[in-house]
Amino acid sequence: MSDYGVTDKGFQMRRLDEIYTDICKRFKDEVGVDPSENPQSVMNVLFTIFADAPAELWEAYAAAYQQLFPNTACGVALDNVMQVGGVSRIGQAKTKYFISCTGQEGTVIPVGALIQSSSRPQRTFQAVSASIISSANWRKLAIRPIESIAGTFTFDFGVSRNATSGEVGTYAESSSVTKKMTVSSYDDAYSQMLAAVQSFDALVKFGIAVSDETDDQGEHSIVLTASGAADSFSATLCKYITVTEVTSNIQFESAEYGSYVLADGVITQIVTTVDGWTACTNDIAPIKGRLTQTDAEARTSYTNRVASRGTGTVASIVSLLYSDVDGVTFAAGYENYNDTTDAAGRPPHSIEIVVQGGSDEDVANIIWKNKAGGIRAYGKHYAYAIDINGNRQYLEFTRVNDVYLLLSVTVTSSGGLDDDYAARIKSLLMEEILSAGTTIRLQTFIRPIMESVSGVDYVEIRGLLSEKPDIEGVADNSMLTGIVPVEINQQPVLSMSGIRVVKA
User: Fold this and answer.
1) In CA terms, which of 193, 221, 343, 377 is 20 to 30 Å from 89?
2) Which helix (H) or strand (E) holds 123?
3) What is the tally of helices (H) and strands (E) in the chain?
């Protein structure tokens, strides 16, 4: 076997100095003159030039060889190598939010309708599809009697759960109340309807609160509010009921690819004017997007996913969540194979799957179909999988939880700072992409500040994870320097109120 090229030790490349030396040796053997002894000679210059071309070819050969293997391939070549193993690079995805949209019954929000954050106007979101604010899909519903109501009539009101997971108690998924009423006036009708709805036992089981509310014009409405932000219900209304206002959860996605997680209650600005659409807000955790995997991320993902092709293992479940569930941006798994509960609270002979993104149903089905028989799926979240017989199976797993990253930034300047330096620094930090379960290195935040904010000589950053988004009252000496540890089931989130910027 040759000493160069593909050898039993891998690829051995002939370098420029070796090629040049060989050329000079061959010339000396044939002619009796060694050009290398006189660096200024014409022959030496020519041989140096002659050596350049094959040296470049050897570099190309070496690069091509490296592109054959997942650990060293880059770009498109890495994609091609991964395909051999049946794995694709995880591509870019937009962040998806279910936005609470309030308006008149039947209002159509067209596909592409835009909303934006009140705190960060540059962050916009667009409706994924044409959707309707409707009593067929409500989390909050305001009703009252029709204006012309009088005499004797039959009051019918029904509620059906739209959600397929998160069942509470044991009850029918649909319930209704029917009551014959005789009324003398509109006010009398309103009072009787309110009493009938308040006494509707099924609403308690569904977790729906009933209240009597008054609008700015002094008009009363019977308001039904779901206890869970993500809950969705459908109402069956008789002809004697009118809907005054509806809040429906409608899916929007970020205008750009990537993970754009904002604090609750800040996506409140309607950009695309639609008659009947009066308000919007975000109070449901998003399905986080991502940028296309880097080569380094793709290599790690390839190794994990190919190595986990077996069934009934935690590794195979994690691999399938990445490959088969739309929207999954992070997944990890843990196993307790002992006969006692472990330090993390996992029961004996159980697995815990930690997931970010993807629908509850899709995640549950992957876990159910691929976990070993007799092994409990443990977690702090639950949903229902569908077994081979079409029956729903209760299943637990753990969702990645949002935690607020509080940052205290102290800048030093000898030449003065612009008046808006603090706001600019906050905006720069809000653009940082934070990953679930990944330790935060605070020094990485310094570079964009130094590059983008004029007059800054030195930056010191302290950080802390908190359940609260506001840094007010948090002392610097209680915060960390250097790194901020992040648990595997934590997703750090930044908010404007969680960033403090001061000048030393």
Assistant:
1) 377
2) none
3) 10, 27
Question: Is 70 exceeded by the pLDDT of residue 1?
Answer: no
| Digit-coded pLDDT (tens) for 87-124 | 778 788 888 899 999 999 999 999 999 999 987 788 89
Structure tokens that stand for 317 in this block: 């479940």
Q: Is 44 helix (H, G, I), strand (E, B) or coil?
A: helix
Angle made by CA atoms 99, 103, 109, in degrees to the nearest 5: 60
Give CA–CA dist 495/432, Å, rounded.
11
pLDDT of 344-396, one tens digit each? Answer: 889 999 999 999 888 888 999 999 988 888 889 999 888 888 888 878 888 99
SS3 of 428, please? helix
- Spell out where 215-292 has E strands: 220-226, 233-237, 241-257, 267-270, 277-281
6 HSE (CA, 13 A, CB side): 6
Report the C-alpha gap between 268 and 265 in whole angstroms.
7
Q: Single out the residue of 318, 330, 279 nearest to residue 435, CA to CA.
A: 330
Q: How far, CA to CA in Å, does 172 sit from each of 125, 232, 362?
A: 36, 15, 24
Residue where the block lists tokens 């969680």:
498
